[in-house]
Amino acid sequence: MSGLKERLERLRASAMAAQAAEKRDEAESTEWSARESASSPTSAEEAAKLHPAFRRLGVEECTNEAGSFLLRRIVYPYPYRHGRYALEDLRLCAPHLQPVAWRQNRSDKKKRWVPETADEFPAPEASGLLFLDTETTGLGVGTGNVPFMIGIGRYRQDAFVVEQTLIRHPGEERAMLTWLQEQFRGVTHLVTYNGRTFDWPVLVNRFILNGWRRSSAEPGHLDLLHPSRALWKYTLPTCRLSTVEEERLGIIREQDVPGSLAPELYVRYLGDGNPEHLYGVYVHNEKDVLTLASLAVHFGHLLGGGLGTAAEEPTDAEERFRTGAWLEQHGQPSEAERLYDLLAEATEQGEGGGEIGWRLALAAKYKRLGSLHRAVPMWEQAASLAEASRLPRLEAHLELAMYYEHRLKDFASALRYAESALGLARRRASLVRLSAAGRQERERLERRVNRLKRKLLREQLEKTAGFAE
């Protein structure tokens, strides 16, 4: 009994110590901004101690109450253009990003201020956007992944300013995060590329591990990966930022260090202390931040009615449809309708490329609107493309079979498309294992074919009887 009592006393003492520590933590910090300190560059004498390679890059040592880290600042005057767009354009384009910001933040339960409709959502301002990109020691979002470099970009007075932090060893992380907290003041949205699922969770983990608690007033998100995928998933080889910037923003990087090499180069730096290893990482991160600003301008132009003027209009049929669908989804139905009309005209002229998906989607839209005269040519083209496909889709044949059977009462044409659909279904079954749904679909096709045969036979008998009379 005495041994059990001693163990209970030890557990009670441990719990009381943990509660006391928790109370101290709460007193020190109840949210992200618990610690506010002025971070400032060091003196010229201390700066001279930096490696010459750092000084050539314009890197300075920055200190605050939590310690020191390295900081690089690059100022781009507003006339500066990154690719097709001038950075100053975002001052006009940022408010047009309102529907994107609303859609990305409305499901976040932490942001109770997000209204029910996009119209009530406050329009972003360029001054409230913080463009953020991190270089980390790994690829996951676990607690072992450390952001050794953080790049941010902001509009300040008459320039776009890029700032990059670097920690020379893990002991400098807290000082870097303290500085980063200061930069969040006045920020309404973090603009990233896959940052909502990577950069931000990594930073959240690091804040928590360094003693800060999550705040209920975190910045909103503008993750530009999502609109990029919506527009270019089917037309670009990949939606990596490097591909998007080259193919759609006119940005060509020469001798760029891929972000995937950043962890290895940082390890080399930690091994021998030579900053030359990090030169390419600095440049890569800087260009990523600039590209985020340029990409935000592009989407702002699309939503602000600048398609075809400020922003190039897509010529690829698939991309034109995806752009129209995205614009319609984000409150620009008239511009979307214009793109759909261009696609319909191209389809009627036998043009539009070899993609089936957008034809079926747009035909379905026209069917809902009752514009069958525009849906039918798209189904016909999609049917021809399906017949030439190794794994054909059946939707176009089925729609045409229903159209001819129910709308035109042309049972012969309906039977032709139904039999073609059944043939395609059997071809698919010979190549891939049919699911239960696939078997049911084939059975429905067989019943449709048999029904149409009976209707066609009845029609022929009625005609024959009419002639006999």
UniProtKB/TrEMBL annotation:
Q: What ranges does the record give for the region Disordered, renumbered to this chain? A: 15-47
A GO molecular-function annotation: nucleic acid binding
Superkingdom of source: Bacteria
Which keywords belong to this entry?
Coiled coil
Q: Which residues form the YprB ribonuclease H-like domain?
A: 130-298
Provide the protein name: YprB ribonuclease H-like domain-containing protein
Enumerate composition-biased segments (Low complexity).
35-45
The record's listing under PANTHER family reads: EXONUCLEASE-LIKE PROTEIN, YPRB RIBONUCLEASE H-LIKE DOMAIN-CONTAINING PROTEIN
Instruction: List the residue ranges forming a coiled coil, or say none.
Output: 435-462
